[in-house]
């Protein structure tokens, strides 16, 4: 198999795919829900709340951060994560446009 030819797709398509890929794991959805509820979060709190190992949580946080969905700030030995507001708005806008583009066709299949 060859590499995915991301250059043939628009920047918006590639960005949305990257974000959706990062959202494609139930642990990451749970992490985001926790961050949203708390309005910020510390990795140790997530370990207690979700019952996953700290290295597992860290890996999921890394994937979410690499996709641009969350941002983190270092506070001593801890890293505090929160939603990246511009990315969240972009994701919300692009998903809404994507879902709104479908017009129900009762004559299909």
Give an overview of the whole structure.
By secondary structure, the chain is an alpha+beta fold. Helix content is 57%, strand content 13%. The protein has five helices and three strands; from the N terminus they run ααβααββα. It has helices at 11-22, 26-38, 43-50, 54-66, 85-100, and strands at residues 41-42, 70-75, 78-83. It has a three-stranded antiparallel beta sheet.
The total count of helices amounts to 5
* Helix-strand topology string: HHEHHEEH
Mean pLDDT equals 88
Number of strands: 3
Q: Classify the secondary structure makeup into a structural class.
A: alpha+beta
Radius of gyration: 17 Å
N- to C-terminal distance: 32 Å
Shape: elongated
Determine the fraction of residues in helical runs and give it as a percent range.
55-70%
Biggest β-sheet description: 3 strands, antiparallel
Strand order of the largest sheet: 1-3-2
Strand content: 5-15%
Give the uncertain stretches in residue-range form. Answer: none
